[in-house]
UniProtKB/TrEMBL annotation:
This is Bifunctional 2',3'-cyclic-nucleotide 2'-phosphodiesterase/3'-nucleotidase. It comes from Fictibacillus norfolkensis. Keywords: Hydrolase, Nucleotide-binding, Signal. The keyword Plastid does not apply. Residues 1-28 form the signal peptide. Belongs to the 5'-nucleotidase family. Residues 385-583 form the 5'-Nucleotidase C-terminal domain.
């Protein structure tokens, strides 16, 4: 049945119930001063990243921790709860259409045709979503592809902070690109089974940085405004237009900052009028199973939970909130109790929770719906492109120079060398440095590491090495910027006390792995006994600290005024991660070619690669007998003999990560 038809049927049923004799009898039994209560369940999916099935395209095997088809089973169960059987809504918080080879396949290889339904949208139509919002990755393939994807949805989406670029520099006449908010009438039942009308307001937000990260697609077409300012503009309008409750769907993360414009949830929770908050972007879980399991993003430097965060209830500054992690591995729930008083509804109690999909079976209807796209993707990613003489893995990429990063930086440098030779010979004498990061180093769980066996390489292998649909950029920067770039990256390490004999963790889990940039072409060491100069948001926290030591190029100390060409991607060049001195640098190469495609072309031309790290960076040796550990997959233990300094302790943490010791003497 068409969703609009269902809504009309629901409305007709509600009206008939209101006028029925049974309804009249129920009302007669109500106490004279009874205030009606309604239970409302908000279900959230987010950061699906085209993980539609419980399958890992990089490992070519099942993966029980992802899959919208599995989340669909959780949704069914959550709807069957008698308390919420007619009193639930399902929302998606963005980053839906990019992230796996399936997303790439439908956007680049066999792109959507007019009238063709994207498999992600087809699955969501089956699941009967009520509302969606856009994530930053929705813009990776351009505005036309975004429009073609969502025009087949049987559900609306909202976004309040993306505007049409009218080029007149007058913010007062700017027009929203998308519907900023919607107020949807929904009939629910109160505690006595009587139908009640709720006007639910939905409003959505995306990080303003999309204009920088996807500049090639968005420049001159749209502008993006501050999330908090947009909320303060539209939420009073929603109240004035009769919204009984307001659900803010923010594709934004939590980091405790009041000023960060990418991860604004802490500040957004303080905006008056928001009754529930679904958030996303950082791939974290909120609320956690217990306070001890709460991610470090929700804690201060001393490990204390930030003021206003109530993990047990799942509230932030008193506002019910939920974040459902990544890839369809969980379903977020906000259960509200609403009370009507003098014609107005207010939240009198709430409980947020997250349900794991790991142990449930996928919904067979969803599986069947996406089967053709899934099988076509598998065929695509198994296309051969070359071979490798040795295994490639990322188990130790955060603690030592690593072949999985080196292969990527070699390919990027190869591309830029050819580009400059053919197109910009005036830059031919400048040294070229190449930046890479270990994208698959456990960010989304213990299963997310690269491990490619020696032998044939396929398109799947390239996707395993380069996870994102980034495009290549090369910047001209000074040696001083290279130094501070590396200082920012060094924030991944905690400060180690060389005189302390108790166990010390080396890696800061709150620092994103995709911001741990390795710069090949220079040599350097990281002194982890010194405090980090920058925090994870790029703010200076220890101005006099310098962790990067022995920084050299071609055997000589790097001159702060020396010019370098640094190869990176559109995310970093556009300011992603707030790396000091990077944004605003001169572009030498502003390419539309994807870094991953460049990697594939490199492997194809080389035919056979030898994945060897050149050891251009390392952690500086420290004195004393410090007992230093780090987390990685237990599967990495078979590679410890390669280093001589890393040992597996045969222990794991609560999330299944293996605990390794590393000798820094």
């Amino acid at each position: 049945m068409n969703k609009n038809v269902k809504k009309v049927a629901s409305l007709t049923l509600a009206i008939s119930l209101l006028s029925s004799p049974l309804a009249g009898q129920a009302i007669a039994k109500m106490p004279a001063k009874h205030k009606s209560k309604v239970n409302l369940r908000i279900m959230e999916t987010t950061d699906i990243h085209t993980n539609l099935l419980n399958f890992d395209y990089y490992k070519n095997a099942a993966s029980e921790n992802v899959g919208l088809a599995k989340t669909a089973t959780l949704v069914k169960t959550a709807r069957e709860d008698l308390k919420y059987s007619q009193n639930s809504v399902l929302v998606d918080n963005g980053d839906l259409i990019q992230g796996t080879p399936l997303g790439t396949y439908k956007a680049k290889i066999a792109p959507l045709k007019d009238g063709e339904v994207h498999p992600a949208i087809a699955a969501m139509n089956l699941m009967d979503y009520d509302m969606a919002t856009l994530g930053n990755h929705e813009f990776n393939y351009g505005l036309d592809f975004l429009a073609e994807t969502y025009d087949d949805a049987n559900f609306p989406f909202v976004n309040a902070n993306v505007y049409v670029d009218d080029h007149d520099n007058n913010p007062k006449n700017d027009v929203n690109k998308y519907t900023p908010y919607k107020i949807v009438k929904k009939f629910v039942r109160d505690e006595y089974g009587r139908p009640k009308l709720l006007k639910i307001g939905y409003i959505g937000f995306v990080p303003p940085q999309i204009n920088e990260w996807d500049k090639s697609h968005l420049d001159g077409k749209v502008i993006t405004k501050n999330i908090i300012e947009s909320a303060e503009k539209f939420i009073p309008q929603m109240k004035k237009k009769g919204a009984d409750i307001i659900i803010a769907q923010a594709h934004s993360g939590f980091n405790g900052s009041e000023t960060n414009t990418e991860d604004v949830i802490y500040a957004l929770s303080k905006v008056k009028g928001i009754n529930a908050l679904t958030f996303s972007h950082t791939h974290k879980i909120f609320p956690a199973a217990d306070e001890k399991s709460l991610d470090s993003l929700f804690k201060d430097a001393k490990g204390n939970v930030l003021p206003g965060v109530e993990n047990a209830k799942g509230t932030i500054n008193g506002v019910p909130a939920v974040q459902a992690g990544y890839g369809g591995g969980s379903l977020g729930l906000i259960d509200l109790t609403l009370q009507q008083d003098r014609g107005r509804w207010k939240v009198v109690s709430s409980q947020s929770s997250v349900r794991s999909a790991a142990a449930v079976k996928p919904d067979e209807k969803v599986v069947k719906t996406v089967k053709n796209a899934h099988e076509a993707t598998i065929k695509y990613v198994n296309t051969p492109i070359g071979s490798t003489t040795d295994d490639i893995h990322s188990f130790f990429a955060l603690v030592q120079d690593d072949p999985s990063v080196q292969v990527v930086t070699n390919a990027q440098k190869w591309y830029v060398e050819k580009y400059i030779s053919l197109n910009k010979p005036e830059y031919k004498d400048l040294p070229i440095l190449s930046v890479g990061a270990p994208f698959k180093a456990g960010r989304n769980g213990v299963g997310e590491f690269t491990e490619i066996q020696k032998g044939p390489l396929t398109i799947r292998s390239a996707g395993d090495l380069y996870l994102y649909d980034n495009t290549l950029k090369a910047l001209k920067v000074k040696g001083s910027v290279v130094k501070e770039w590396l200082e920012m990256s060094a924030g991944k390490f905690k400060t180690i006390d060389p005189n302390k004999t108790e166990t010390q963790e080396l890696l800061d889990a709150g620092f994103p792995v995709y911001n741990f940039d390795v710069i090949d072409g220079v040599n350097y060491q990281v002194d982890v006994t010194k405090a980090p100069k920058y925090d994870k948001n790029g703010a200076v926290i220890n101005a006099d600290s310098n962790r990067i030591v022995n920084l050299s190029y071609d055997g000589k100390a790097v001159d702060p005024n020396q010019d370098f060409i640094v190869v990176t991607n559109n995310y970093r060049a556009g300011g992603g991660g707030n790396f000091p001195g990077v944004k605003g640098s001169e572009y030498v190469v502003d390419s539309a070619d994807e870094n991953r495609q460049i990697l594939m072309d490199y492997i194809t031309e080389m035919k056979e690669i030898t994945p060897t790290a050149d050891n251009n960076w390392s952690i500086a040796p420290i004195s004393g007998n410090a007992n230093v550990t780090f987390l990685s997959s237990p599967n990495g233990q078979k590679y410890t003999s390669e280093t001589g300094k890393i040992q597996y302790t045969n222990k794991t943490d609560a999330n299944g990560f293996g605990i390794y010791s590393i000798d820094l003497k």
